[in-house]
Fold this sequence. Notes:
The structure holds two protein chains of two kinds.
Chain A: E1 5-12, H1 18-27, E2 40-50, E3 56-66, E4 85-91, H2 95-99, H3 101-111, E5 116-122, H4 129-143, E6 149-152, H5 161-171
Parallel strand pairs in A: 1-3, 1-4, 4-5, 5-6
Antiparallel strand pairs in A: 2-3
Chain B: H1 3-12, E1 15-19, E2 25-28, H2 48-51, H3 59-66, E3 72-81, E4 87-96, E5 107-113, H4 115-151, E6 155-159, E7 165-168, H5 170-176, H6 180-183, E8 202-206, E9 212-222, E10 231-238, H7 240-261, H8 265-280, E11 284-292, E12 298-307, H9 313-326, H10 328-337, E13 341-343, H11 355-361, E14 365-374, H12 378-387, H13 391-395, E15 398-408, H14 416-456, H15 459-466, E16 472-487, H16 489-495, H17 498-518, E17 522-527, E18 530-535, H18 544-565, E19 572-586, E20 594-597, H19 599-609, E21 615-619, H20 620-626, E22 630-640, E23 644-654
Parallel strand pairs in B: 19-21
Antiparallel strand pairs in B: 1-2, 1-5, 3-4, 4-5, 6-7, 6-10, 8-9, 9-10, 11-12, 11-15, 13-14, 14-15, 16-18, 16-19, 17-18, 19-20, 21-23, 22-23
Helix pairs in contact in B: 7-8, 7-14, 12-14, 17-18
Amino acid sequence: MVSISKKMCLIGDFGVGKTSLIRRFVDGQFSDKYLSTVGVKISRKNVTVVGQDAVSSDLQLLIWDLEGHTKFKVIAPSYLQGSKGALVVADVSRPETLERIIEHLDLFFSVSPQGCVIIALNKIDLIEPEKAIKILEDSKNIYHDQVLSIYNTSAKTGEEVDRMFEELSKNMS
Amino acid sequence: MNLLFTKMLQARGSEYLTLNQQGQIISVSPGAARFGDIPEQVVVGEDITRGFPELLGLEDVLIAICAGDLPDFSLTAIARISADQVALYFDIYLFADPEVKQPVDQLICLLEDVTERRALEQSLVQNSNETNLLVNQLRISKNYIDQILASMADVLIVTNPLGQIKTVNQAAIDLFGYTEAELINQSIFLLVKDAQIIKGKPSKCQTKTNKMLVISFSCSTLETMSEVEPNLIYVGRNITELQRQQQRQELQYAIAEILTTTNTLNQAIPKVLAAICHNLEWDLGALWMPEVTTDEQLEIKLVNTWCKENSAQDHQTQCSEIGISYSQRLVEEVWVSGCPDWVIDIENDPRFFFKSFVDQSHLQSAFSIPIIGSAVDDDLIRETYELEVDDEFIYSKQVTLGVMVFFSYKIHPLDVDQLKIMGAIGYQIGQYINRKQAELALHNQQEKTNKLLLNILPVSIAARLKEDETTIAETFDDVTILFADLVGFTQLSAEISATALVELLNQVFSEFDRLTEFYKLEKIKTIGDCYMVVGGLPQRREDHALAIANIALDMLGVINNFNARHPHRPLSLRIGINTGTVIAGVIGLRKFIYDLWGDTVNTASRMESQGLPDKIQVTEATYAHLHEHYHLSKRGTVAIKGKGEMVTYFLEAKKS
Lengths: 173, 656
C-alpha cells in the first residue's frame, strides 16, 4: 500500500501529445488517432524512486492530463493548484507550440513557484535527427535556468518517456 | 445540513459530500459514490482524496474556505473513463455551509454531472483542433511546395486553358525579367514567341529586355476540381546556351564540309555565307575582297552577297546596295586592322553614315570578320615546288585576303564566343583561298611543263613517259624518213657571226617546224644544219611517204622564197628520203629525246649526203610509194657507202 501520492500536470498546446505521453508511460501504449482531451483526466502510476540518500521509496503519481491550450480556451490555473511538478509539452513539428512554452512555464510558476518542471519536446520521430538536436540545443539555451531538464521525446517510439517521468518524480517534493 | 438545501440539490440531480477541514468525509449523498475514482472509498470517515484524488494537494484551499478566506473553489470537467470507455464528466464545487457562521469545520463538496455538456464540448473541440491541425499541415505543405517552386532552377508557368498565366515561380521571374504582377493574367505568348508550344521542342522566348532565349518546355495538365477544363503546367529549361553551342559546332562542321567539297572560291562563298547566316541567325551576308584597280591601287570590292529567303522582296535588290555602300567603312576598317568588329546598333554607329539607308533597311546589328591568309605569289609557289624552300619562309606573311560582313534585322548583343568562332572560320577560309591559289599556280606550272615536254617528245610518247615507262623502244615497219641539209652552211659560218648564223638557221628551221606541224609529221631533231623529220610514227599512217614528199617539195619552196628575200646570200638545200623499218624510242636518263635507229635511217642520211643541191633524192623503196602520184626521174646507180650500189631517183613534182 503506497501512502505517498504526488500530483503532476502536463501542460501544453492542443495536439502536442500530452495524453499520448501519459498513455505511453502509464499503459505502455500508443495510438496515432487524435482524441482531444476536455477538462482534466487523472491517471495514477506507482513508481519507486531512489532518493539522494540512496533510500528507495514507493510513490503514487497522480498525473493530470489537462485540456490543451487553444486560441479559444486557456488552461485554468485552478487545475495546477497543489501540483509539485509539471511537464511542459511541445510538438517539434509545429514551431508555434515551441514558441508558447514560455507562456506555459509562466502559468505554472505563477501557481506553483516552487514546483519543478521538465520540458518535453515531443514527436521527434517526425523530424530529421539533426533538426531535433538543433531544437534541443536552442531550447536549452533559452530555458536551462528555469527547468530541471529538457528532453527530446516520442510517445510513438517511447524514446526518453520513462526517463523523463522518473526524473520528474524523483525531484518532486 | 439544512433539509431545504438538501431537497433542492436532490431536485437538481446533484450529489454532495460534506467534509471537515482535514478532508474527512462527514456525510455522503446517496449517489455521490458514482463520481468517485474508487467508489468504495467514498464513505463517511474516509479521506476525501482516496475517492477523489483531484483534491490531493488542496489542503490549504480547504482550510481557507473554512476560515472564510476563500468563498469557494471549483474544479470543472473532471473525467472518469470507465473500463468500457464510457466517459463521465463532473464538476466539483467546494464551499462552506451558508447556514453556519464562519469559521466552521464543515465544507460542502458539490458534485454535478456535466457529461452531456462536456461530451458535446469534446466533439466541438475535437473538430476545431483537427481543423486547426489540418490547416497547419496545409500551410506547411504549401510552404514546402512554394519553397520547391522557388528553388527550382527550371521555369514553371501555370496557365488556364486560355493560356493566361496563373502562377509563375522565381526562376521564371528571374529569367524573363518581369515581376510576378506583370505576368499574372497575361498570355503566355507574352513570353513565348512561337505560334505554339510543342512539348520537347525548343521554343523561342523573349525577355522584358527583348533578349531572345531558347527554352525547352514540358507541358502537363493540372486537374482541379473547380474548373471544367484543366490548367496547364509548363516546366521550361533554358537551353539557349546549349543550343548556341550546338549551332556553333554545326556551323563549323558545315564550313569544313563546304570547304572540302567545293572546287573554287566562287562555289564555296555563297554556301559559306548561307551557312553562317542560317546557323547564327543573321539575315544578310556579304564577302568583300581586294582587287587591283585600273590605276594599280588595291581596293576592297564586293564579291558576293547572300540574304535570307523570307526577307522582303525589295531586300533582295537592296542586298547588293547594302553590300556596296552600306558597310564599306566598316569593311575597310576590318580589312586594314585585320580584327573582327561587332556593331550592336547600326543606327548609332558613325561608320554607317547613310542614314536614309538605315531607316529604310531596318537593319539593326552587324558584325564583320577578316579572312586571314598568307601573302602568296606565283613566283614563290614556283620556287617552292622546284627548290623546296622552307614553307615557313613563304607562308610567314599574314594578310587580310577578304572581309565578311553580316547584318540582322534584330539587335544582336555582342557575343564574344561567336566572334572567336567566326575568327577561326575566317582563318579556315583564308587557308582555303591559299590552297586554291597554290593549286592554281601548280596547275599553271604543270601546263607549262607539259608544253615543254611535248616540244621534245611526241604526245603519245610523252604520255607513256609520264606513266613511268623508263625505256620506250618500238619497231615501225613502214615509215619514211627525210634529211634536209643546208648546203654550204659550214662555209657560211666562216663568213657571218655565230649569232647571225643561228638567227638564220632559226628562221629556216622555224618554217620547217610549221610545215611539220601542218603535215602532222614528227620532227626528230636537228643536227647542226641538218633537219630530220619522219612520217608514219609514232602514229602509223598509210600516206607517210606522200606526206614526206609534200614536205620535201615545200621545203625547197621555203628556200626559194628565202633566197628571193635575201638575194645576196642564196641558200640551197639537199634532201634525202628513204622508206623502211625503224626502231623508235627514248633512251637514257637525262635530256632524253625521241630518236630513230636502224639501217633505214642510215640510208636516208646517205640519200641526203650523196644527193645534189636543190634536189630530193629518194631510194627505190620510197619510189615505190610515190611514183603513182609524183613525177620522179631516175638518177641511176649510185655507190652508197656501206650499202654498195643503189638505184636512186629525184623527186621532181606532184602529178597534177
